[in-house]
Design goal:
Layout lengths: L1 E5 L4 E6 L2 E6 L2 E6 L5 E5 L2 E6 L4 E6 L2 E6 L2 E6 L7
Parallel strand pairs: 1-9
Antiparallel strand pairs: 1-2, 3-4, 3-6, 5-8, 6-7, 8-9
Length: 83
Amino acid sequence: MYLEIVTPDQKVFEGEVVAATFPGADGSFQVLDNHAPLLSILTKGTIVYKDKKNEYDVTINGGVVEVLHNKVIVLAEGLVEDE
């Protein structure tokens, strides 16, 4: 499936992944290939996404995610900077 993560300032990631886990308002949830359509609010937390070889993570301040036709778009409020 195709994942795109964007903030108001930058495009954080764009590409094919096999799984993605999100910090949802009611707890974390995972999206896999051929997931049902979904629109969800995201809280401050870490998005973890996997391609065929590696796992990556990015911590966001919140946002929304839309899943539709194997395309996942995250509109994040911003990234949490390392302290």
